[in-house]
Structure formats: structure tokens, C-alpha cells
Fold each of these.
Amino acid sequence: MRRELTRPWVASVLLLIAFLAIWQFLTAATGGPTANVDPEYARLAGQSASQEKTGAIPTPVAVAKRGYELLINAFDSSNPNNLGIAWHLLYSLGRVMLGYILAVLVAVPLGFALGLMPKLYQSLNPFIQILRPVSPLAWMPLALYVFRDSSVSTIFIIFICAIWPMLINTAVGAAGVRPEWVNVSRVFGVGRLEHVARIVFPASMPMIMTGMRISIGIAWFVIVAAEMVGAQSGIGYFIWNEWNNLQIASMIVAIVLIGIIGLALDVGLSWTASRLSFRE
Amino acid sequence: MASVDIRDISMAFAGKNDLPFVALDGINLSVKDGEFVCLIGHSGCGKSTLLNLIAGLLLPTKGTVVCGGTPVKAPGPDRAMVFQSHALLPWMTCVENVSLGIRQAFRGRLSKAEMQEKAEQALKLVHLDHAIHKYPYEISGGMKQRVGIARALATEPRVLLLDEPFGALDALTRSSLQDELIRVIEKTKSTVVMVTHDIDEAILLADRVVMMTNGPEARIGDVMDVSLDRPRDRIELASNAHYGEYRRQLLDFLYRKQLARAETGA
Ligand SMILES: Nc1ncnc2c1ncn2[C@@H]1O[C@H](COP(=O)(O)OP(=O)(O)O)[C@@H](O)[C@H]1O
Ligand SMILES: [Mg+2]
């Protein structure tokens, strides 16, 4: 029994149960009206009506119910003003992927150029250092003004926030190829292009993949905020919209889904990284 | 005819406080075709630097290296190197590592299939038939160093340069690789310049042992001819009448003259 308890996943499950129990206890005790609403009435009036009155934090059971409702209607597109949650997630994922892929296409080749040409790196570095710390959301109004389209603007925001970690990691990776490997290349007369393709590229792969992982995390972070500010779809918009309707349970469901998808993106990329990186 | 001619070479690196750090000062050495030369000296005296100068990885501040009649300005296919840290590319299989050099050296002269054949032959020569398609992380340190030797020999260089190739291996593996090297060089008749800090290795392998003084401003302190027929057998060598005298000469240089010099701060 003791050994069972010390298994990390057992402890995780126990912690989760404890957390849910405390949550249930606190919300059921103080939430008052939420717990007392007649379920039949709540169904008739719609969830919003029942919770608008209360404004309290819903119980985990209520959240689970709401989650179930959202999931069975996830792909509902019958009402264009009230799309299923899956559509919103797909909108967000689509924007992240577009912005992210554009960022990869720019950051990786440019990172190689910077890593292999120290002079170029030095001359571009001031701009990188000034642009990098700018919050991606600071670009939002300017992007909306320039592109005059909220989707394009959010894609641009993703692009601009995802590019820096990949650019810098690729540059550092390409510049830091082990001297012994550079010497092998030189001694055996490997040409410039082949040197980049067959030595610098695989040698910097672990660094590139680390940059890509950091970037996808940041992009998934930023998409929620960007959609709250300037979009009519997407999971960020969904959360903001539910907030306006005081649908606290929906917001919590969305938060959990965002976390799960973020984790999936990271696991997927780290698996890819381990496949693409060399072993020693 | 001289394969490598080192003419009055000095090598200075950018040192602290903008003062040049003179690693080598006035080195002259001529290596004949088919000769096996060992460079021996204390750590940090500039052996690797000298080897890198022959390879063309470094350019001397003074003097020239001439290889096969032409001055060395960069690395070239006439010189191949075996590195101390094996320096295999971990994302390539053994045969791909060996092919890397072959492809550059025989570009336009051999077909793809012939190059592949050559790479596999080189690995067979060092008894790695079974590891051709393995990655470096799948094989032992001794096997990696064999691949390093195969990679260098496969390009059929005029001069083979080895920088303490067995330094990181245990004694038994080292002996078997030394025997392997003896056997392979006997076949290819390569000219070899090898750095070592192992006295027995030098006597076993070399026609000539070049002893370097401690740096900075290292020079050639002494040169010893090992006038025993090659290839040599390590067991016969151990009972050879001259063996003790060779050892004594090298020990005397390394541990009396050089350590005394270091201790007096000269
Ligand atoms: N690139 C370099 N820059 C500055 N100093 C160097 C460089 N390479 C070697 N040295 C110095 O030159 C000396 C000889 O080094 P090295 O040739 O590696 O010695 P060895 O191979 O005999 O141990 C050492 O003092 C080392 O610190
Ligand atoms: Mg060395």
C-alpha cells in the first residue's frame, strides 16, 4: 500500500480528487442559489439564466455537466452566431498553425544565415533585441489597422511572437557546431552547401527543435489573448463571449481544453524532436 | 622524396592582453614517403598545433609546410586526419561517415556505386564488416576510432595524420588498435605522422620519434631513429636488445630534460 502511494501518478490522482473535493465543498456551501436551482428550471431557462442570478463560482459537478453539453454539441454549426466549441478550437489552431509555419519558414533559414555569418548577426542583433521583448499584443491595433482583417491580424501576431525563439535558437545552434565536426568537414573538403545541409543542419537540429517547442508554447499562449482583443471566432473569443454571458462554467471548461491542447502540442513537438535529433 | 616538408615554422596565437602566445618556434622536419613519424611531448607543448598546421586547418605565422611539392594553404585530399575524439558525425551511419570523405576525394572519378563499395571496403579493412550500417552511438569507443581510421584511409591520402588516436581507449583496446594500424599501414604503405604521449606506442610504430620541448615556443628537442624493421610484433619487441635503450632515450628526454626544464621555469 505504501509503495502504491508513492507512485507519482497515484499521488496526482489523489491530489486531483482532493482538489475537486475542496472545490465542491467551497462552492456548494457558499454558492447557495446555484445549488438550489431546480434542474428542470435551469434547463428551461437555459444555463445562462440560472447562473446570471448567482455570479458565483460553479461547482465541479456543474462544470462537468457544462463540459458534457459543450462536448456533445462541439461540432454544432447550425447557429453561426453560436458555433460549437470544437469550431472555435479549430479556428484557434488554424491561426496558430498558419502563423507558426510562416514563422518557421522565415526563422529557420534566417537563423542559419545569422549563425553562419557573424557580421550579419551583429548588424541585425540590435533590431532583434528591441523587437523581441515587445508584447505581441502591442502589435494588435497596428496589425488591425494595416491588414483590416481580424483573422489576418491574429495570424500576424502569432507569427511575430513565434519567430524570436526559433530565430535565436537556430542562429545559436548553427554558430555553435562543435569545432571537431567543423574540422572534419574542412579536412575532408566538404563544400559550403553540403556543409550546411549535412553538418550544420543536423548538428543544430536539437537547438532548432527546442526553439520550435518554446515558440509553439508562446503561440498557443498568445492566440487566446489575441482572439479576445480582435476576433469573432476562436477559443479566446469564446472565453470572452462566455464571460460577457457570465457563463463561468463554460470558461472553466475552455481553460481546461486550452491546457490539454497546449500539452498535446508540446508532447507532439517533443516526440518529433526526439525523432529528428541525433543520438550520442 | 619528402612527403611533408616543414620549413622553419612558427605559430603564434592571440594570447592574453594582446600579447601573442608563441606555441611553436622554428620547427623544421622532413617526412619521407612511406615513413612513419611519431611526435611525442608533454601535454600542451604544441603537438596538435603542428599536426593541424600540416593538415592546413591552421596557417603558420612564419614558415611553410610543403606537401608533395606544393605549399599547404588549406586542407586538401592529399592529407587526411584521424582525430583524438573520433569526431564521427552522430547522425550518420559508419558507412555514411566514411563516404563523406570519399565523395569529396573521388568526385567525378568514381560512380556512386564504386564510392559505396570503397567505403565498405575501408570498413572491412578495419574489421567492421558487421557495423557498416550502425550509428556511432551503437558501437564502442574502439570501434569508433576504427571508423575514424577507415574514414581517413579511404580517401587514399598521401599523408595520414593521427592526433593521439588511441589516447582515450583502455590498454587492451589500444593494443589491438595499434596492431590493426600496423597491419593496415603495411597494406597501404601510407606516410604517417602520428601524435602520441605513449612511449611504447612510439617505439612500436615509428621509424622516427620526434621529441618536442615543452611550450611555449616549443621546438624539436631531439629525434630518435628506431632502426627496427616494420611491421613490428609487440611481443618480439619486448625482448629486443635495443628496446630498452630506445625507451631509456625517450624517458630521459621526457622526464629528465623536459621536467627539469619545466621546474626551473625555463
Ligand atoms: N586556437 C588556439 N588559441 C590559443 N591558444 C591555443 C590554440 N590552440 C592551441 N593553443 C595553445 O597552444 C599550446 C599547444 O596546444 P596543443 O597543440 O593543443 O598542445 P598538445 O596537442 O601538445 O597537447 C597550448 O598552450 C594551447 O593552450
Ligand atoms: Mg593535443
Amino acid sequence: MSDIFDIVIIGAGPAGMSAALEAAQQGASVAVLDRKATPGGQIYRDVTQSPLLDPSVLGSEYTEGAELVEAFMEADIDRHQNADVWHIGETGEVLYSQDNQTRRLVARELIISPGAMERPFPIEGWHLPGVMTAGSAQVMLKSDGMVKDGAIFAGTGPLLYLIVAQYLRLGVTVNAVVDTTPAGGVVRAMQYIGGALRKPAYLIKGLMLLNEIHRAGVPIFRHASNLSVLGESKSVGLQFEQDGRTHSVNADHIFLHQGVIPNLNMTRALGIEHHWAEQQLCWTPTLDDWGQSSIPHIAVVGDAAGIQGAEAARHAGRLAALKAMNKLGKLSEASLQQQSSDHLRAMKSFKAFRSFLDAYYAPTPEHRIPAASNTLACRCEEQTMGQLRAGFEQGAKDPNALKALTRCGMGPCQGRQCGHTVSELLAVWQNKPVSDIGYYRLRSPQRLLSVDELSQFQNIKPAKKPAEVSA
Amino acid sequence: MNFDAIIIGGGIHGSATAYYLSKAGMKTLVLEKDYVGRHASGVNAGGVRLLGRDFAEVPLSKEAMSRWQTLDDELEGDTGFRRRSLINIAIDDADMSTIKTRITKLTGLGYDHEIQIDQQELRERLPHAAHNCVGGVVSEQDGYAIPYKATSAFRRAAERFGATFHEGETLANLRQIGDAWQVRTDKASYDTGTLINCSGAWADKTAMMMGDNTPLSYSAPMLMITARMPHFAGPVVGAISRQLSFKQFENGTVLIGGGAKGFADRDNNRTTLDYKKLALAAETTKTFFPIMKTAVINRMWAGLEAYMPDNLPVIGAGVNARNAYHAFGFSAHGFQLGPVVGDVLAQLITTGKTSFDLNPFRIDRFERKVL
Amino acid sequence: MFRSLRKPETQSVSININGQMVQVAEGSSLWAAMALHGETQTRLALVSGQQRSAYCAMGVCFECLVEVNGVPNQQACLTTVEEGMHVCSQDLTEQSIAALHQKESADHE
Ligand SMILES: Cc1cc2nc3c(=O)[nH]c(=O)nc-3n(C[C@H](O)[C@H](O)[C@H](O)COP(=O)(O)OP(=O)(O)OC[C@H]3O[C@@H](n4cnc5c(N)ncnc54)[C@H](O)[C@@H]3O)c2cc1C
Ligand SMILES: Cc1cc2nc3c(=O)[nH]c(=O)nc-3n(C[C@H](O)[C@H](O)[C@H](O)COP(=O)(O)OP(=O)(O)OC[C@H]3O[C@@H](n4cnc5c(N)ncnc54)[C@H](O)[C@@H]3O)c2cc1C
Ligand code: FES
């Protein structure tokens, strides 16, 4: 078997699977790499082999994913699961770990769709055991059927309400929802209401979730601010302000969430051009409507390309695949335009809807760039806001300089949990736009790589023919 | 604006030169196109090494080494320097006799800083070295410092003496007018009595604007660092005949070098890594230190470094212009020389002389050579 | 405690967590296997030595690093359990590293 493919896709979420299906339909040789054991991505995680007796409690948005996963499993695609990509070369070489060995594939065209991660939520005590992200609650539920009773869910964004509702449907108790969506969200979002009305079903779903939580009798604290986790060596509760009063709620477990941001490390390490997206308050690859990046043979799609949600990710995946076929000379310009038009139109309406969501659920500055000097910005190297400020005052005005001086961003997470905080902090301190500040210079490997595995790289293995797995 | 001295380049040598010049009372400006310590000086391996130096460099390197021991006090800053000793491991008898020959030569020149050690002593100093290592050579004063911190310590000390640093400002054009210089950048124009080229991997371009040609080449040496490991190596480790080079920092991380080079694109400030060569470095490290098998690599990177054909730097006055000086081309071992080169230049500039023999470092030493 | 809603018919494998043999569902993530047995401590914070536990469960925070079959720094949330796997929480910190270093220096005096 050759290890050269027309199209290699990284990530088997809705974006990657859709891209693969389109490319396979169009007759390309396609390989898809995903680090998890099963395809699906964040939203459809384990949808075809749920550990739960009745996965339908997770909602129709989840179960609807089964169809896509099944189609993906049946198509003529080289599927590589448990394949963790640690390097992509500019020439199209893809290196990934599988069974503690590095293997290699070569792509004529690359479509990158590693998805999103949750936005860092740097408040006092966010590093304590017992504090996790709301996304983690969902991951644990979907892939392991594991839940935690009596937790507090805190923050903002539609995913926060979704997981609370899913918990309640399963009879898992929830202590409180501490909602940090600031008052006036509606007013801010009103200018985008047109976009929201194009997707009324989504709007109604969101309201229904809130209603569901309310009806279940879970205390909801709206417009909460100044969150901090209580506890010395582990979480014992959450303190916050509401209407000028300080509250505290006890809980040994807290799930935090304030939206998601693109998973940047792969696109950054590749040297793809990025920009600061003011509306989503995050770094985003700079792309055209087909997901085409600044590197000619590389496209980025799905939430890694800017947060648009799962449905938009499907259209984006198809668009990138069509464009790749066109670049491979297998699809005429006219067919490209014709086959793209529906997807392009769909993307436009999702964008408009997203503008509404982004404005409504904008994470507040205090939970992104906290003022308290003893709050950790960098969890790995344990650097506090105060230590970063001191580094800045010693002349480190660039994220990389600050990293070299304080070790902030040097730890195993490679800046995933502090990068956005640092870019924004340096911007505020210098009264400059974040786009002038930049981000860490990242390199492969995109995760910890053992010396033993790396050292075998000289006699690197070609891709293993994926074992036939049934959906 | 008027300055007594303008330095092109804010690496360790530009920053240190600014420190010594402003300490001597000169009004000094450093122009740095990116930010201070952005390139080699901020991302190198931090090796502070006297062991195995070219004989021509030994006098400067020895002086630098004794200054490192007290540099934090001198600069009222934190360079991260730790004296740890450096051991170059011998794999076989051939290596042992290479060491012996070199030490005999050094002794003849009056130097006693390199000491041969036998297998037993090697085991005591580096208990985790593979059993087939037969001995080595040690230099006791050697160690490491933290590159960005050291460079920035020089910069802040220079600022305390009144030096000015302009970051994000690129030299565009130079004119000698009489004995003085007019310096134009992408942002402004300045006059200065003295001009100093500390432009690292771009120094041939600066030199050309000053009227001097130089056969500089540049490359991208690569490094990788592990997540923290239990302490297993006190001394910095090298080898006589293998590309083995690593140090374990106090915090437990292990920095692996070995001289492997990636690809350099200096016009775009970019380097690309050559993973095959890094894999080889990983293999070598693991072979000589089996404990490294379970180490995990956290980050890999490369920096842009200037090399000269003889791997010796250019240090001293320009030859085709007046009041022009150079310090560049350190060929992957210039960090250690940080505390001395700037002082030598400052002495030359303020007194016209220095106690070091700079002949091996003349910029015109390749003039009549066929390279 | 975390609890499991996993359907009962799942096969199980046995693994060793911090010296204790336990039965866990086949195909579970190592983090879930640990958490369901009350072993929520993954590693220590490297500078302060404080206890840490998984944060993101999706591979982006690296709080869940544990030693698997003798190899440290493995992400428990991305590891799938396998029969006979040996897992330990990590207790390395800068202080413990410094102590080892001082001991070695003292041995040399
Ligand atoms: C924790 C979490 C939970 C979410 N839950 C929901 C939800 O319930 N409902 C909803 O509407 N939206 C949810 N989202 C938003 C979600 O990101 C999008 O809706 C959608 O899944 C995006 O699709 P995608 O294909 O872009 O990325 P994803 O679905 O995230 O797929 C990316 C895939 O890439 C793989 N990958 C990443 N890095 C590598 C690598 N280095 N090597 C190999 N493979 C890699 C991942 O394993 C993953 O399978 C969630 C997001 C997060 C972060
Ligand atoms: C990966 C690596 C590992 C190394 N390891 C070691 C080691 O262990 N021990 C050791 O002793 N040495 C080591 N070195 C070598 C050492 O880092 C260098 O020799 C030393 O830092 C050179 O310092 P410099 O000030 O001359 O150059 P640089 O640090 O490169 O500084 C030159 C500066 O000039 C600026 N500049 C250039 N042109 C212009 C212009 N036109 N206008 C304005 N500014 C300009 C550049 O932006 C740059 O910042 C290593 C180097 C690398 C890359
Ligand atoms: S819990 Fe975040 S990486 Fe595993």
C-alpha cells in the first residue's frame, strides 16, 4: 500500500468526516487520522457505541450524529484511529503516534480539523482538584458514562446549559448554575438578531434548555461576577458576586465553561497565518470561504477554523474537500462553483447566527484577564498574574519574551491554557490591539513525545493498514 | 538625535557592549529589529563552556568564565548561571588519547583548566552514564545560564547606566560622514561617532553597509527539552567523538543539543526543524544515558546563528571605515563569551587598545584565502 | 465520588492503580478508571507540590499526567485501559528534584 494520499484529513469530527465523505465520493484516495479510538469528534463522541443504556437522553443533536459516523465507517476511506498527529511538515508529510510508534503519511492536499477546546477560565483556584471544565463533564459522560453528583456549573455559553440539562435528564444532581452571562447580553446581541432569526430552531432550543434547568429546581444565579474557587488543597465551593452581594455555594466539584476557541497548536506550529478575531476573542487561522489557508495545499475547517458549531463544520468540510479536488485537477472550476454554492450559503447563515451567540455569551474580561495578582495564568509552570506583570515590567513585552523570562507557557500544555490570557494581558498593559501582540511561537511536537519513540524515527514505519472496524 | 555609539543588534553581545560602553560614560543606543534576545542570544542552549575551546579563543573564554561566576552581582540581575562543571565523555581509548594530547598542548601554553578523568571517576560524577564509557575530561568552572535572562540582565544593567534600546527598529542605511556616521532606520535617523556591528546571523549585511566584506554563513542549530525528570546528572555532558550534548537544569528538565542543524530562512526570521536529525540526537542520548529512555520531549526549536569558515568569531575594528567595530560570527559558542567581548570592544573604543590578541578574529583574515 | 452509568453488560479488564488491582470497564479511559476508584490525584504541581487532578478530560491541559507501565507523563484522559496495565500517580516536584541533586552533591564532597 502506498502511503501517499490525494487528501489526508486530521480529525474525525463532523468537519473531518464530512470532508472525507465528500472527497471519497468524488473519487479521491483519502486517509483520516484521529487520536481517539472511535470517530465522532467532540459532539458525536462514541455516538455509535455509547456506554449509556439510552443515549437519546443526550438529545437529538447528539443521536443525529450516528448517521454521519456510520456513513463515514462505510465509505472507501483509510481510517486511522488512535493516531495522534504530532507533526505536519510544510511539504505535506504527516507524522503520528500509534501504539507508541511514529508512523508517516504523505498528503497531496491536507485538510486540518482538530476542533476546538474550551476557553481558559483563569480565576482564583481554577487549578484545584475538583475543578474541571463543563466540556470534560460531557466527554466523561459520552465516552465513559461517568458523572458527578452535586457539582456547580459555572460560566456562560450554550454548552454549559446543555450539559446541565443532560445531567438532569439522567437523574444526576446539580447543586447550582452560576451564570456569568452579563446583563445586557440581549441588548449587545440585538444587532445580530436578524442572524438569529434565520435559525429560530436553535434559538428555541437554547431557551428550552434554560427552562428545563429552571423547572428541575436547580438554583440559577444570573449575571454572576468575580468568581473564585474556595478551598486550600481542593475545591470546597464557589464564591461570586451577584447584584453587589457576595455569595458562596458549597460543592466539592465545579465545572467551568465560558465558550470554546479553536485548537490552535497544529495550525500555529505549521506557521499558517492567524489573526485575532475580535468578535470571538480568540486567535483564528486566516482562511478563505473554502477554508484555504496561507499555505497552498493546506485547508483548515470546523471549529479549528473559528467557532461555528457542528452543522457549519459539516458544510465547511465539504467545501474544503471540493476545493482540494479542484486543486488536484479532479474537479473543474465550474463544477466547484456549482457544487459549492449551497454550502457557501449555509455557511453564511451559520455565521450570522454565530454573531448573535458570540455577542450574547461574550466572556467577561474579569474571567479572561483577571486582575488578582495571585491568580494562576499558567497552570503548568504555576505563574501568577503578578509574576507575569513583574516580567512585563522587566522588559518582556512580547509573549515569547515573557515566556523566556517567566517560563509561562513552557510547560507540557505548550501554552494551550495560558496563551490567550497572555496575548490579552500584554495588549491591555501596553494599550495596544491584541493583533499587534501576537502569540507564542509554537513548534511540533504538538504534545509530549517520548525520547524512545522519537529515537526510532530514523527507521520510521509507513502507515499501518487500518484494521477493519465496524461501526 | 546624537549618540556617542550606536550598536546594531540586541543580542547578548549588543547588550553587553551597550553595558560596558555606557558604564564608560558613552551615550549609547542599541537598535534591534525584533526584540532584545529574540534570536540566538535568547534561545540558545545556555552552555557556559570553556572546555574544548579553540586555542585562539581560550584567553577570552577563560576571562569570560571567571566573570560568569560573579556576573549576577556585577549586573545586579539574574542570569540563571550555575557552576556545574562540564564533562566530555570518552567512549574508547582513541578518545582518551585525544584528551591526553590536547591537555599536553594546553599545559604547554600554561593552561590547567582541563583535567582528564578515568572510568571510575566518570562513574562517580555521572553514575547514569553507560558502562562502556571509559573516562573523560572535565572543566570545573563550566556550567549553564538561562539565555534570555542573561541577555536581558545585560540590557537592564546597560539601561541603568543610561543606554537606550529601540526594539522593532531595523537598520536600513549607513553613511560615513567625516569620522562620524549617519544611521538611518525604518523609523528615524541618527548621528553617531562610533558604530558597532553585533548583528548576529545578519552581520554580513551590516558589515557590507560599513564597507567590510565577510564570508559569514548562517544556520539553524536545533534543541529539544524534556519535561521534568528526577535528578540524574549534575554536570553538563558532552562527548569527545559523538554528537552527545545535554544538561539537566535545576528544575529537572533536560536540554538536548548536539549541534544538529535545521533549515534557516533569515529573511523571514524563520527556522524549520529537521526531525530526523533530532531523532538521531535522541538516540545518542538514550544510548549513553539509558535513563533517558523514559524521558518525554516537551518542546523543540532552533535559532539563527552566524558561522565563520574557521568557526572563530570576528571581533575588532573594521578595516574599510573609521570608528567602526564588529563582534559576530560566534559559530554556535558565543553565549559564553557574553561577559568579555563587549568589554574588549569598549576598551578598544575608549582607549584604542586591549590586552587580548585579536589577530585570530580580524575581519579581513579571509581576504586572501580561497575558501 | 464519580459514579458510572455504564450499561451493565460491559466486559471488564483488570489494571493496577497505585498498587491496587481493580476491575474496570473495557475501553474506558484511564482517567475514568482512576476516578471511579477514587484515585483522582494524577500528578503534583511541579513548583508548589500541590495536588492536581484532571481538568479538561480531552487532552489539552496536561493535568492528568500519570506513570503508565513505568513511563511517566502519560495523559490519563487520552489513554485507553488495557489488561494488566500498571498505573501510578506522579509525585515528582522541583523540591524532590532539588533534594536528589543536593544529595548527589553531598556524596561528592
Ligand atoms: C469538550 C467539548 C464538548 C463539546 N460538546 C458539544 C456538544 O455537545 N454539542 C455541540 O453542538 N457542540 C459541542 N462542542 C463544540 C464542538 O467543537 C463542535 O460542535 C464540533 O464538534 C466541531 O466539529 P469539528 O469537526 O470541527 O471538531 P471536533 O468534533 O472537535 O473533532 C476534532 C477531532 O480531531 C481529533 N484531533 C485533535 N487533535 C488531533 C491530533 N493531534 N491528532 C489526531 N487527531 C486529533 C479529535 O480527537 C477530534 O476527534 C464541544 C466542544 C468541546 C471542546
Ligand atoms: C540553538 C543554539 C544553541 C546554542 N548554544 C550555545 C551554547 O550552549 N553556548 C554558547 O556559548 N553559545 C551557544 N550558541 C551560540 C550563541 O547563542 C550565539 O553565538 C550568541 O548568542 C550570539 O550573540 P549575538 O549577540 O552575536 O547574536 P544574536 O543573538 O543573533 O543577536 C543579533 C541581533 O541583531 C539583530 N539585527 C540583525 N540585523 C539587524 C538590523 N539590520 N537592524 C537591527 N537589528 C538587527 C537581530 O534581530 C538579533 O537580535 C547557540 C546558538 C543557537 C542558535
Ligand atoms: S485532563 Fe486535560 S489533558 Fe487529560
